[in-house]
Description:
Blueprint: E1 2-4, E2 20-24, E3 30-35, E4 40-44, H1 47-53, E5 58-64, E6 68-72, E7 76-81, E8 84-88, E9 95-100, E10 106-110, E11 124-126
Parallel strand pairs: 4-11
Antiparallel strand pairs: 1-7, 2-3, 3-6, 4-5, 5-10, 7-8, 8-9, 9-10
Amino acid sequence: MHAARPDYNPPVTDAASPISHSGRCLCGAVRFVAQGAPRWVAHCHCESCRRATSSPFTTYAGYLRGQVVWSGTPAVVYRSSPGVERSFCACCGSPMSFAGERWPGEIHLFLPSFEDPAALSPEMHVHAAEQLPWVHLHDHLPRYLRTAREGPPLS
């Protein structure tokens, strides 16, 4: 089901925060500014994220919803599974965000859509049980079978 995001009006944010990271879709119709530091930055290897991005894995920065200000054309939402919303640009199709009931109050932004994706560094790998066998990343980051909230890193 596709629907326009009625909540893409700018939310209340912490204007005192000196840290902000802006981003946009490929065509520039959908833009955002994430204010403050992210809660976490992670590579996700789950099948759902791979299919949503047509890539071997994707990298997210997790923010509280109130830290993100959207502008431009509202993104369109696809409810990919119960309790999960994935937003994308209706003009160019770029994936913009992920939100799930398992992470109330959070929105996960695709790090490659940031104007300066190198400004934030991944801290972990999640859903490592679903990592493709031909992906070899020797970055020494902790790897979690599912998520960091669901148990210790793999040894």
